[in-house]
Design a protein that fits this description.
Elements: E1 4-8, H1 12-24, E2 28-32, H2 35-45, E3 49-53, H3 61-71, E4 76-80, H4 85-94, E5 98-101, H5 106-120, E6 130-133, E7 136-139, E8 144-147, E9 150-152, H6 156-167, E10 172-174, H7 175-182, H8 193-205, E11 212-215, E12 219-222
Length: 223
Amino acid sequence: MGKKVLLVEDEARIREVVADYFKMDGWEVYETDNGTSGMDWFDAIFPDLVILDIMMPKMDGFAVVKQVRMRSGVPIILLTAKSSDDDKIHGFELGADDYVTKPFSPRVLVARANSLMKRATEHYLPTGHMLSFGEAIINTKSHQLQLEGQEVELTPKEYELLVILLQHKNNVLSRETILNHVWGLDFDGDIRVVDTHIKKLRAKLGCESHHIRTVIGTGYKFE
């Protein structure tokens, strides 16, 4: 499965061209034309990158950045027809990672997106289907975890929970986001099931459990 980008842009032609370039570069592209549906998509797919226009109907780009940052530290690129320093500073203060002023080259946008992703995951070093951190190694084909050379048995949910945290290293994941992506959108149980599984996962990780940090009032982060 490729990297997922959520593209929120109300100008259809720009959205179409940008989407095509990202698809050619191997990305999974999810598109919408307004901020409100953009947040619906964000909660449904949990993208690896968000690209959004500032001037949009229903919810502008600044409002979307604020909403995303309440859920995640996923990289965000803002698109704008404005080039004022005040707008850029405001975007950065809200938590945006990069700014692209229209008109722009789609190829350059893809390159900047890849550069952002590289920086965001520079300490996350996958080798084929093997993931590692500290003394732990995960085989994503067999869904097995080895800790200091010994196999650690994980339940399917514990495995999925660990992988989603690893895949979004250094990003804060809300309990709602974790619940949606591990248990599914139709799960109607208690959201605290996330806390229960985190506790069990930490116990199994032993000396490597310090990588999973609790973010009070929000959720969890893998460091």
